[in-house]
Amino acid sequence: MPRRGLMFKACRKCHFLVDFDSPVCPNCGSKDFSDDWRGLVIILDLSSETAKILEKVKPGKYAIEVY
Ligand SMILES: [Zn+2]
User: Fold this and answer.
1) 3 in a structural domain
2) Are 18 and 26 in contact (CB under 8 A)?
3) From 14, 36, 48, 64, which residue has the greatest number of CB atoms within 10 Å?
4) What is the pTM of this model?
């Protein structure tokens, strides 16, 4: 079980949160994941201020910090 990541692991490259059984990040294609992450932001609308601040390119769930 993840220590504090609910049921997701976070991509170390782009912070995208993916299901534990996903082998690659659907956002950037990286296979480098961490189950040690904190904070969750959900990007629904890429024109939102949050998306601009975080420089995210794909709607979805992101970890704010990944260790
Ligand atoms: Zn990624």
Assistant:
1) no
2) yes
3) 14
4) 0.77
Name beta bridge partners: 41: 62
CATH code of the domain containing 59 = 2.20.28.90
Q: Give pLDDT tens digits for 18-51.
A: 999 999 999 999 999 999 999 998 888 877 777 6
Instruction: Establish if 60 belongs to a structural domain.
Output: yes
Q: Note down the domain range covering 29.
A: 8-66
CA of 62 to the centre of ligand 1 (A): 10
Residues with CB under 5 A from ligand 1 (ion): 11, 13-14, 16, 25, 27-28, 30
